[in-house]
Amino acid sequence: MKDQEKHAGAVSNLVDQLCRLPGVGRKSAERLAFHLLRVPESEAYALADAIRRIRSDVHYCKACFNLCEDELCSICQDPQRDQTRLCVVEQPRDLMSLEQSQAFSGVYHVLLGRIAPLDGIGPDQLTIEPLVDRVRTGNFVEVIMATNPTVEGDGTALYLSNQLAEYPVQLTRLARGITAGSVLEYANREMIADALTGRQAL
Amino acid sequence: MAAESSVAVVLKTIEFSETSLIVTLFTRDFGQVTAIAKGARRPKSSFEGSLDLLAVCRVVLIRKASDALDLLTEAKLNRRFRGADKSLTRLHGGYYLAEMLRLLTETHDPQPMLYDLTLDALSQIDGTGNAALALLGFDAIALRLLGHTPTTRTCADCGVATQLDRSVPFSPAAGGVVCGSCRISQPSVFIVRPKTLQCLERLLDNQTRLPLATASANKIDANYRDVRVLLNRYIEVILGKTPRMQSFLPARMEPSE
After folding, report:
1. Which residue of chain A comes nearest to B12, CA vs CA?
2. Which of the listed residues B171, B234, B245, B246 has the most CB atoms within 10 Å of its CB?
3. What is the side-by-side order of every strand in the sheet holding A170-173?
4. Going edge to edge, which strands form the sheet with B168-171?
5. Whether pLDDT at B221 is above 80
6. Cβ B91–A22 below 8 Å, yes or no?
7. Averaged over B160-189, what is the pLDDT?
């Protein structure tokens, strides 16, 4: 009986821990816990080891604050990358999305968030100071603000452009407007306004 | 439950699960509403990326009778807030509006006049209007619409008439100016100049829409700082805390950049 209680306690503990993950409710957590009891031990330990490794080995790149296991991430170490163009993103996952597009060959800087005064997040809590240092000491000709196209993302880009205004770099923002493949008839007026504002010479 | 439609301003969004958002809206017909917008972060959702802070949109809601969150089924963007395209002053002004609406209004308590005032203030702030004056006007009119008008001519405690030609004690806790006798029993009283009170009266006077008339704006201009401080302290007492964005408010009423 005591063993059974101990066993139930361990399962219940695992369910509680899994419940704390984003998007995992109690039912899903129970399903995952019982799955881990069913699979071979090695498989369950591999998961535990992967979780342990991600916490002990993964940290932020010293230059760009992307996630990496060495001092510098693979992008910062790559000599083929264009070291004169810097793309500023909010989170490492945004960097991954841009990398998947294969349209950018420069280097990145991850802010690790966006300025959101309503949530108590100010410039000091982001990696803005290292960014300014990087632009001051680097050979960049262009800094691309690739923060999210939201009010807070735009606000962060505006703040950064004020901070970087004194340096001889071109400050640019990601384009926005009508999606390629759609038609003007069904685009809302804000999309059309954005597209017109950001129109390009042919 | 039947779906209901209204126009709304987005006050706050929180990411929820993979693609959903929990959205706090200030609707014209139902007051403040917090609802879940399932799949709102997917690019091809029925929300068309309209659920951004301070965006004005037409929304369709399914209201829940229990404590559960209302369900937002559709949002069509009418107008996006573009303060961040212009200046940090205008952006912070927008943030301040969102915070004040969230703190001052109640859930499911419609305030259509306050909603209309909010749209006026937004168009002043992210347009070419004077952001500092628009925020001052918004605060004063919003306080009046919500029944928090500070007294300016009679003691807020005992009701005796006060003299307008000299500086008078003002007690945010009592709800306005106080007479010499009542002053002693009030906490955190400060002295207000007659001109400051006159400006406050002008702001509170009858209007429910922005921009303020040019004559009022000119009168307020010289006393902006004093009126701003007075309203800030009064609002702090009403809310029981200092709004986060209060320290970002414009210090002067010069034309916003």
Report:
1. A118
2. B171
3. A106-110, A82-89, A142-145, A170-173
4. B176-177, B168-171, B190-192
5. no
6. no
7. 89
Structure token pair of residue A162: 């004020």
H-helix or E-strand spanning residue A141: none
> Is B53 in Cβ contact with A151 (below 8 Å)?
yes
* B226 shares a domain with B101: yes
Where are the extended beta strands (E) located within chain A? 59-60, 67-68, 82-89, 106-110, 142-145, 170-173
For A36-64, the pLDDT digits (tens) are 999 999 999 999 999 999 999 999 999 99
Distance CA B74, CA A40 (A): 46
Task: Check residues B120 and B256 and name the one with the higher pLDDT.
Answer: B120
- ipTM value greater than 0.85: yes
Q: Which two tokens stand for residue B131?
A: 């952001």
Amino acid at A8: A
Residue of B nearest to A178 (CA): B48
Residue position matching structure tokens 């917090």: B34
- For the whole model, what pTM was predicted? 0.88
Q: Which CATH architecture has domain A77-201?
A: 3-Layer(aba) Sandwich (3.40)
Q: Which two tokens stand for residue B86?
A: 């212009």
- Please state which CATH number belongs to domain A2-57: 1.10.8.420
Number of domains in chain B: 2
